[in-house]
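Record type: monomer structure entry
Structure origin: computed from sequence
Chain ID: A
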Amino acid sequence: MAWLYLFVAGLFEIGWAIGLKYTQGFTKLVPTTLTLASMVISLGLLGLALKQLPVGTAYAVWTGIGTVGTAALGIWLFGEPAGVLRLVCIGLIVAGIIGLKLVA
């Protein structure tokens, strides 16, 4: 169950990272509220996952999910560059997440 908590926490991390863009400096009420809610849920689920998982592994996986998801959505939603080197680097992060899962 800890891995499920961690995965969902990573998804909410993506939500708040992308949400920050939509808050326009915390001047938009609805995006700001949703972003803050995503932050709280993400950290809460990370805390639950940490009851069973090593902190180094859990934190690296949590931030990795957030990084990969945010980078992918940045490309898709905001037209950020999707060069080969950038995609290779994102792939390396995914490989690291999988590796940490396999050895934990």
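Annotation 1: The CA atoms of residues 96 and 102 lie 10 Å apart.
Annotation 2: The chain has four helices and no strands.
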